[in-house]
Structures are given as C-alpha cells and as structure tokens.
C-alpha cells in the first residue's frame, strides 16, 4: 500500500558504544516537500513500539534519520516501522539493515618473555548490545616492533 516512489531508501541503523543507535535513510525518489516519515522500533516482538524522539531533518524539514539512546536488543530480532504521509496519502514501507559497530576488546593483557621470544595476549570479548557468545567473534592482531 502507499504511493509508488515514496518509500524511504537506504535505511540503515548502526548501534555503537553498546547502547546508542543511529538510523538514517534517504527520502523516496517521488517524495515531495510535504512528505514526512516517522520511525518506530521495538527490541522484540512482545514489546511496544517506540517512536523516535530525536529526528534529524533535511532542508525541507523531512525526517531523514533518528538517534536512539539506551538501546537494548536482547534477541537477534528487532522490528522497525517507518510510516508517514504525502499530501494526506500513505507512503510505501521498505526493508532495513541493522549493523553494530563493536567496541575494541576489553582488558587486553600482554606478557612477553625475551628468553623464549614469546608473547601471550589475553582479552575479554567486546561489549555488545546483544551478542553474548564468545565463538561469534574473530580477532586480528597486528604486532608492531619498535
């Protein structure tokens, strides 16, 4: 349902620093200056929808993004709804992508012994909004000699 070409495009949400989420999108290619978008999300199927309280706007005042604080996603599923209107008529709804930018590993420790020419490195998994399994992470270590 909704007018063709009014759906948002390139909808992406990025979670960073564990509990902040920034969502952005481009207005539909047939969207006029009076088109307005509203973003709702819920962390799981059983929770109520939460409307964005902190929109970012383009030069026409149309919502093109949202910033959320205190985001908690307990499971892998999060639900998003973007609706709105153009001249009183509904707009199309489209797909989304959600990405989490991880913090670096925590409590990195290094113990090197010159005699054995060996270093042992330990760390804890990064803080994340929803991934709790250690085997979900892969690490790359760059060693620099001074």
From TrEMBL:
Cellular component aspect of the GO annotation: external side of plasma membrane
InterPro entries (UniProt xref): FN3_sf, Ig-like_fold, Short_hematopoietin_rcpt_2_CS, TypeI_recpt_CBD
Entry GO MF terms: cytokine receptor activity
Domain Type I cytokine receptor cytokine-binding: 11-97
Superkingdom of source: Eukaryota
Keywords: Glycoprotein, Membrane, Receptor, Signal, Transmembrane, Transmembrane helix
Compartments it resides in: Membrane
Pfam families: IL6Ra-bind (PF09240)
Membrane topology: Single-pass type I membrane protein
Transmembrane segments: none
UniProt-recorded name of the protein: CSF2R factor
Annotated source species: Alaudala cheleensis
Protein's gene: Csf2ra_0
